[in-house]
Structures are given as structure tokens and as C-alpha cells.
Amino acid sequence: MNHYEAVFILNPVLSETQIKETVQKYEDFLVSNGAKMISKEDWGLKKLAYPIQNKKSGFYHLFEFTVPGEVITPLELEFRRDERFMRYLTVKLDKHAVAWAERRRAKLKQKA
Predict the structure, then answer these.
(1) In terms of CB atoms within 10 Å, which of 32, 45, 75, 84 comes out highest?
(2) Model-level pTM?
């Protein structure tokens, strides 16, 4: 089981329910393929550094999870096929990145 982090940007024209459905669909996809979700974050609507598909903003989301490596390719294939996604990035975390992510989550918990 490898530790991964996936950040994706959803199209800003989606409604709140469409965004929730999309996020839930991909969380269910991961869990059904044996993933253990560690954290989910909704970063909200953010301005993009440059236009993507003639859009200047997008809804950012972060998933942190552990899963066998062979699940990542089908996940990214689904991201590519879904037109609600503007961009995505999946990164395998090493032990230092995992520790940093834990500290970041603890800091966010203290603020809340």
C-alpha cells in the first residue's frame, strides 16, 4: 500500500450538488478499489494562475489516501474521461511528505 495525494480542479460552472456528487463518485471509486481514505479537503473556489478552458477559477479538492499502485492508472483514466475535471495531479508521498501532511492536518485541526 502506497501513500498518495490527489489534487484536482473542478469546473466552476458546476452546482454545489454536482460538485458533491463528483467528489463522492471518486471517493467511492477509490474505496471500492481497496483505498483507505486518510483525509479529504475542499479548498473551495480559487482563482487560477492562468485560464484553463477559458475559465479563470475552479473548485479545488484534495484527497489523501493509501492504495496499491495499480489503482492509480484507472483513477487517472477516469479523471481524464470526466469533463467536469479541468486539471488533476496525483503524487506518491515519501516518508517525509507523509510526516509533513500529518503536521499540516494537525495544524488545520487546531485552527478549526
Answers:
(1) 75
(2) 0.91
